[in-house]
């Protein structure tokens, strides 16, 4: 079904978009990037962008209705229907005001988890307004409103996630074109393949008309900017990523972005300072000129104390609740291979202080003695990191533990000791840590974590240098909410068994 939908959508795009290609362009003449027909904006909207807002509205209505129905079923009070109807209308209006229906038409892939703060705010404001101006101020109405609010904060995000996934599954894969080439374009291609490959298909790149224009195996070169109209029409492009190098003429970059927007394409841009900007930026205005404000570290004593409290409470709860599973794993290790249950290894912690990190033993006892014999199987070039997907030293039980990340659970003891945090940068062995130089050593200004950006965003698929940059960005824009998001995103990674 999905393949048929993709073919139909691509054919429809070709039929509508060919009107942008003049006879002169078909004969090989360059296109004028300043003369794009503005009426194509709506025609270029893909099926996914067209249906997602409708699906999200239906999901929000269903989630709010479900929450109100459950509150009525449990608490009673049918006379409060008017109050609950007002809450629903206000919530939907505020969600619309917070632009939570338009975001999918702008970003590469919207995440319900990223929307959660604003979604919760909208429902909370709606509940507060309902209590203040509702048709009745009876205690029953207030109780029902509070219960509906609490249930809606759970049901609306959950149903939203299902609705978005359903639309993505039943609509055509979006075609992505990169404007630019070289290192940045290759990085964009790698990210798309790793994180969004099932929803987006990279068709290639266009670059400026320079003698040093080049593509790569990952990003085939389809031409120059003068070929933009023809490529958009022929390949059914939905989304354009601006990924020019620092030497690109700013006027060419601006013209390209303006042209893509007039064609009605979704446009994303990799900022020039993407390695240090992160996602926590603030837009502000200076004399009519838009600027980006970069946030400094927000590691106040209160925030760090809250993080430590969450670590202690979370690790204690995990060790208590998971104690039967931990005991079962320990027995399985002892029955299937000779040697101790736990394995400890020196890692470098916060402020470059060493500590012994605990794990369930997943390899044979003399694994370190055989490391040199299998060094040629290392999947990381340069020798900084040592990773082998099918390491022959791993025991059968150990392979299962690694795939499910269950071997990491003893590190909750390290968290209790204060040597690790539940979320933080990846703790490195001494040889890896010594390879981190200069500004990147700030990655351990925060206690290393049991999980973190590297574990969630790719693990063995992420090169060492990029992993270090991920950790530095995490430290630079750390917040308790970011820790919570990474914790929640670790769960599906474990369930998919994409462990190291």
Fold and architecture overview:
The protein has 500 residues and is an alpha/beta fold. The protein has helices spanning 2-17, 23-26, 40-43, 47-75, 81-97, 112-133, 139-170, 183-195, 228-235, 250-262, 274-277, 301-321, 323-336, 396-404, 411-417, 430-434, 453-457, 464-476, 480-495; strands spanning 174-179, 200-207, 221-224, 239-242, 266-269, 281-286, 289-294, 342-348, 354-360, 421-423, 449-451. Strands 3-2-1-4-5 form a five-stranded parallel β-sheet, with helices on both faces. Strands 6-7 form a two-stranded antiparallel ribbon. The protein has a two-stranded antiparallel ribbon with strand order 8-9. Helix 4 runs antiparallel to helix 5 and helix 6 (112-133) packs antiparallel against helix 7. The two termini are 34 Å apart.
Name the descriptors.
five-stranded parallel sheet; 11 strands; 50% helix; globular
Mean pLDDT: 80
| Sheet/helix structural class | alpha/beta
What kind of sheet is the major sheet?
5 strands, parallel
User: What strand line-up does the widest sheet have?
Assistant: 3-2-1-4-5
| Percent in strands | 5-15%
Q: Span from first to last CA?
A: 34 Å
Order of helices and strands: HHHHHHHEHEEHEHEHEEHHEEHHEHEHHH
Query: So what's the overall shape?
Result: globular
Total count of helical runs of at least 4 residues? 19
State the share of residues found in helices, binned by percent.
Answer: 40-55%
Low-confidence stretches are 1-43
Let me know the number of strands.
11
Whole-angstrom Rg? 26 Å
């Amino acid at each position: 079904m999905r393949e048929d939908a993709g073919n139909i959508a691509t054919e429809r795009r070709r039929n509508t978009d060919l009107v942008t290609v003049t006879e002169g362009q078909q004969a090989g003449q360059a296109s004028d990037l300043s003369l794009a027909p503005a009426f194509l904006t709506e025609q270029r909207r893909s099926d996914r962008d067209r249906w997602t807002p409708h699906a999200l509205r239906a999901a929000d209505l269903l989630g709010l209705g479900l929450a109100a129905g459950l509150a009525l079923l449990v608490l009673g009070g049918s006379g409060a229907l008017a109050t609950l109807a007002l809450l629903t209308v206000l919530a939907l209006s505020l969600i619309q005001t917070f632009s939570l229906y338009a975001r999918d038409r702008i970003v590469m892939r919207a995440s319900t988890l990223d929307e959660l703060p604003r979604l919760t705010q909208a429902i909370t404001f709606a509940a507060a307004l309902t209590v203040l101006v509702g048709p009745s101020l009876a205690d029953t109405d207030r109780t029902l409103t509070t219960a509906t609010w609490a249930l809606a904060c759970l049901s609306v995000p959950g149903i939203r996630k299902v609705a978005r996934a359903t639309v993505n599954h039943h609509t055509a894969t979006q075609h992505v074109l990169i404007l630019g080439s070289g290192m940045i374009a290759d990085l964009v291609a790698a990210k798309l393949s790793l994180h969004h490959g099932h929803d987006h298909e990279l068709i290639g790149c266009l670059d400026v008309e320079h003698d040093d224009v080049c593509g790569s195996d990952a990003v085939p070169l389809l031409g120059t900017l003068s070929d933009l109209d023809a490529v958009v029409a022929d390949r059914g492009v939905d989304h354009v990523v601006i990924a020019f190098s620092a030497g690109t003429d700013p006027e060419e970059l601006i013209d390209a972005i303006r042209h893509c927007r007039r064609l009605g394409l979704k446009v994303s841009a990799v900022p020039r300072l993407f390695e240090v900007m992160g996602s926590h930026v603030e837009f502000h205005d200076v004399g009519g000129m838009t600027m980006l404000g970069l946030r400094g570290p927000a590691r106040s004593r209160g925030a760090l104390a809250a993080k430590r409290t969450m670590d202690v409470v979370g690790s204690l709860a995990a060790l208590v609740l998971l104690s039967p599973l931990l005991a079962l794993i320990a027995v399985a290790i002892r029955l299937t291979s000779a040697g101790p249950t736990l394995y400890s290894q020196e890692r470098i912690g916060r402020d470059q202080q060493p500590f012994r990190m605990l794990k369930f033993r997943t390899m044979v006892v003399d694994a370190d003695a055989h490391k040199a014999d299998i060094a040629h199987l290392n999947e990381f070039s340069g020798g900084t990191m040592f990773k082998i997907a099918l390491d022959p030293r791993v025991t059968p039980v150990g392979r299962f533990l690694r795939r499910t990340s269950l071997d990491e659970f003893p590190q909750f003891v390290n968290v209790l000791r204060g040597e690790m945090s539940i979320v933080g940068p990846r703790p490195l062995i001494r040889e890896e840590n010594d390879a981190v130089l200069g500004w990147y050593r700030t990655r351990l200004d925060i206690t290393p974590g049991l999980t973190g950006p590297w574990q969630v965003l790719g693990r063995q698929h992420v090169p060492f240098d990029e992993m270090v940059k991920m950790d530095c960005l995490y430290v630079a824009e750390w917040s308790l909410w970011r820790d919570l998001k990474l914790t929640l995103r670790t769960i599906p990674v474990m369930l998919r068994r994409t462990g190291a």
